[in-house]
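Exercise 7. Given the components listed, write out the predicted structure of the assembled complex. Treat all entries as one system.
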Amino acid sequence: MDWGTLQKVLGGVNKQSTSIGKIWLTVLFIFRIMILVVAAESVWGDEQQDFVCNTLQPGCKNVCYDHFFPISHIRLWALQLIFVSTPALLVAMHVAYRRHEKKRQFRHGEKIDIEELKKEKFHIRGPLWWTYASSLFFRIIFEAVFMYVFYYMYDGYQMPRLMKCSAWPCPNIVDCFVSRPTEKTTFTIFMLAVSGICIVLNLAELCYLVLKACMKEPRKTT
Amino acid sequence: MSWGFLRDLLSGVNKYSTGIGRIWVAVVFVFRLLVYVAAAENIWKYEHDEFECNIKQPGCENVCFDHFFPVSHIRLWALQLIIVSTPSLLVVFHVAYRENRDKHHNQKLYRNPREIDGGLLCTYLISLILKTGFEIVFLVLFYKLYNGFKIPHLVKCDIRPCPSTVDCYISKPTEKMIFLYFLVATSCLCIILNISELSYLIFKYSIKCYLKRYMKKQQ
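Answer.
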């Protein structure tokens, strides 16, 4: 049980997505989840072991580490990925519900679009359009919120090499050194850039959906 | 043999669930199991190594750690996930039993072995009550074992062989607390979902019963 299960679920959503949605899913899997698992986890793996403070006072390192890293970058990214993927589940549930309804109608002998049922793809119309649009909206909100939380918690996106700590039981202002600060900064900026790209993709998809819906409306009225 | 087994089990349960039941499965997968495996496990990975006491006396750290963490949070979390998912097995077994009976007698004893009615309804309701009960038990256990859901960064320990009252420092207390609150929030959400599903099923079948009786009276 790991990201593979999420991949399976989201893979199902892939069929119902627009082209931009498919690009978003690819970016999510390759540039975020895979990078997180393959690279970022190793970079942050030894973060507390190699966090060194210039003091022999027992407990000072623990307290300083906790003070500067209330929640680790890697955990925040994992949570961000989980929250950002969740709205897609709404779409998956809606599609499953529609499929169930269509099958029920078919069993009761009503006329339905067999081609649509066979292809297992539903056009994004009506209530499904609203579910899809809401999922896009929530995705954008979650991405933005997490980016802000990162910025607020870590005073920007750079990892400093040295932090000064005077929390008790440290006897005075003690120098604490973070492990691999440059590598961590690189990955932080990378993940930030990819989040930005995902926000742009989601916005583009939302605009596309709205435009498509607006263009259909005048055609209906004429 | 790992969490994949639980995942497969819950996927199986998904087929026989109501709509709210499916939401419950999704919440358990995404917000509990996935968060556990992807994030929480690593926070508690080196908890014993990083637990530090302000003393050089050998054995003091071990004894103090054991005193303050009889069962680690992360193990309790894992137990909770397993035990809370298990009542759904009752429903799976009952459906399998029904389908087996149909096969054995070579005739359709049930209109639809997977439809939630009669005996299967009772089993389903019992599984919901058990799930809710286990969730509440674990939440109370967490609360009682650790005096609330807070994790202090410093604990004072004076158990032998520690020579006096010694300061011991817990690693990553803030991060652990954040995830503990997350655990509590998702447990509460699951309890609410279970209670809603229970109410929905009881309401639906009471109405069904009442209508049946009403139709009988009319005839």
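Discussion: The interface with chain A takes residues 2-4, 6-7, 19, 22-23, 26, 29-31, 33-35, 37-39, 42-43, 46, 50, 52-55, 153-154, 167-175, 178-179 of chain B (CB under 8 Å). Strands of chain B lie at 52-53, 154-157, 166-169.
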